[in-house]
Amino acid sequence: MKKLLLILLLISSIYSQTNKKVTLQLNWLHQFQFAGYYVAKEKGYYNDVNLDVEIKEFNSKMLITDIIEQGYADFAVGRSSIIIDKANGKDIVAMFATYQHSPLMLLTRDDTDIQTLQDLKNRKIMMTSDATDSAAITAMLISQKLLLESIDIIPHSFDLNDLITKKVDAMASYISNEPLRLEDKNIGYKIFHPKDFGFDFYSDILFTSNKFIKNNPKVTKDFYDATEKGWKYAFDNIGKTALLIYEKYNTQNKTLVELVSEGEALKKLIYHEGSNSIGCLDKRKLQKLIDIYKVTGLIQKDIDLDAFVYSYNKHNAFSLNLTHNELWNYILLAVIVVILVVVSTLYFIITRKWLITKEQLQYEIKVKTKRLNEQTYTDYLTKAKNKKAYIKAISEQISLFERYQTPSSIILFDIDNFKYFNDTYGHSFGDKVLIDLVKIVKSTIRKNDQLFRVGGEEFVVLFPNTTLNQTKVVSEYIRKNVEEQLSSLKDETITISIGVCEINIDDDLNTIYEKADKLMYQSKKTGKNKISF
């Protein structure tokens, strides 16, 4: 009997640890557009919360909302038009808006006489026949007094050659897709984006049903959190993510360069205004969309947005990733502004003359903000850029290398025997060494090279558009200049040990630093005051 109970408990334990299977339905074919979901699956973010996620490509046989309503999928990705389905009584809850600005726009060739939207009158425009999918474009055209009856709208073939051969004059396209393909063919183009005309729609909204959320609250929240994590990684690591899609989700046979280009274009559309939050669904913006749909006749009644937006969506989040000191700096700036306004008002009451003008106040705020931004990315002692600035700069340089293979190199160096100088002569002497060192290095490198203090006596110099051999030459100048110019302090010989390396295709933020760090310590172990590469 005891053995039977033990077996039953073991079976129960194994069963309880089995990942729950859920299905995600995409609204198009695999491409960078859905990168966050692939990352969450392949990096194990879904698995970490015990979810086994199946990702399905576009299914043209059913409406995306019907797939959810009839239980063929648990989650799906749709356009802003799901608001219309909600207004028509569908059980829909919007969870996460990947793109805060829709990639959908009108594309024309630039070798035509089409310069404004009005020039499209009596021209052929290729777009989907479903008004809900093209509502942003329709609203944009109407806003420019271009009646739909005056345009020859033809069904979308999704074939770019129709625009290239001028079979059509314009086509509805994604800003992350067709323009990049035209660039590869050296064909000029012009974009008419609804956002530029006041019609700023969301795109790629992750949604589910209220029924599913009620029956699976933890699964829904876990899926949301893991998905958000996947999207953050995807856009922080565009090159790696593009390679993942290229190897595992490339049903359209796109090149790696095309996928990287797509990622870079889409990254411009993901952030909520005023923050670095991803996925936000702002109810004020949604209400504006509802109003637009009402004007176009697609919605006749209001929607309960509290019921439409998932309760855990971060549309009210205020996330600036500030350090404690940076946060207090911005609070101090706000206090200063308030004091200036109050003092100026009191002065006016007494003298009937403003102490400061509006322009002076704006200038004051601008100066203070610039100063705070400088403090955020500048080392307080040496006035070199700090580690936070280094992380930002090297990440951008790695992304550029992944996209264009432009050579770039870094050197990592620190001061030999620095602890000895501090212990012997005191920290004020050590500070002077650091300050003078920065002046020497800055006078040696080019204007577009960047110097960062990344640790106590550790520094990095980033050399854009510079090969390893070129960097070795500059490194030797730096080494010599430091030895010659710093050795006058206390009659001590002050030197640096340097590691030099070039950014390679497999490098990321950590690997490039680790390589340089190992090379620097190789210089120290083999005698100091040396360069290793």
Provide a descriptive summary of the structure in words.
The protein is built from 21 helices and 15 strands. With 533 residues, the protein is an alpha/beta fold. The chain folds into four domains: 19-100 and 202-308, 3-Layer(aba) Sandwich (D-Maltodextrin-Binding Protein, domain 2); 104-197, D-Maltodextrin-Binding Protein, domain 2 (3-Layer(aba) Sandwich), CATH 3.40.190; 324-377, no CATH class; 387-532, Alpha-Beta Plaits (2-Layer Sandwich), CATH 3.30.70.270. The strands form three sheets. It has a five-stranded mixed sheet with strand order 2-1-3-10-4. β6 (124-126), α6 and β7 (152-154) form a beta-alpha-beta unit. α18 (418-425) packs across α19. The chain starts with a helix and ends with a strand. The model is unreliable at 11-16 and 316-322 (pLDDT under 50).
The CATH architecture category of the largest domain equals: 3-Layer(aba) Sandwich
Oligomer: single chain
The tally of beta strands, per DSSP, is 15
- Rounded mean pLDDT is 84
Major β-sheet annotation: 5 strands, mixed
Secondary structure class reads: alpha/beta
CATH topology of the largest domain: D-Maltodextrin-Binding Protein, domain 2
Q: CATH-wise, what's the superfamily of the largest domain?
A: Periplasmic binding protein-like II
Give the distance, in angstroms, between the N- and C-terminal Cα atoms: 69 Å
What fraction strand? 5-15%
Q: Radius of gyration from the CA trace?
A: 29 Å
Helix content: 40-55%
Question: How many individual domains?
Answer: 4
**Uncertain ranges:** 11-16, 316-322
Number of continuous helical runs: 21
**CATH top-level class of the largest domain:** Alpha Beta
